[in-house]
Amino acid sequence: MITSADMLAYVNKKMSERSAGKYDMPVYQIILYEHSVNADSYWGYDYGCDDSPGYFHDLTDAINAMNCNLGDMHETIYNAGYIICHFQGLYCWTRPEARMYFEWDEERQGFFQKEEPES
Q1: How far apart are alpha carbons 118 and 105 in whole angstroms?
Q2: Which of 38, 47, 71, 116 sees the fewest Cβ atoms within 10 Å?
Q3: Does the pTM exceed 0.85?
Q4: Where are the domains of the chain?
Q5: Can you tell me the distance from the alpha carbon of 87 to that of 30, in angstroms, rounded to the nearest whole number?
């Protein structure tokens, strides 16, 4: 499981490789999706809806937003998501060390980090 320390080490490495311009700051984007088993679908499962409610420039803020379900991101349908770190650009490719996987915890009413399921 990727920890926040792992992700910050990745960010520091990437920033040291880049020229430190004003657009080279990392963005921690939150992406949520609905994952459910669906016997009627062609593959037997369905990723359903997805959403990207926002981003943060600080990883701790992004994790806290997930943990406390900031802005009711769960909306009763989203049960998993990622915090993905990327830099400015189109179609940013995200390495495994630059994403953290979260699942909805009904008892705690928030998204909490889990092992990323195998695809």
Answers
A1: 20
A2: 71
A3: no
A4: 4-15+25-113
A5: 14
